[in-house]
Amino acid sequence: MSSDNEKQKLVESAVELFGMIEDSTVFRQYAEYSAKVKNDLDAQRLLGELVEMGKVIEESLEKNDDAFRKKAEYDLLNKKFESNDTVKNYLKYQKMYLSMMSSVRSVISDKLKIY
Question: Is residue 76 a contact partner of residue 70, using CB atoms and an 8 Å limit?
Answer without folding.
Answer: no
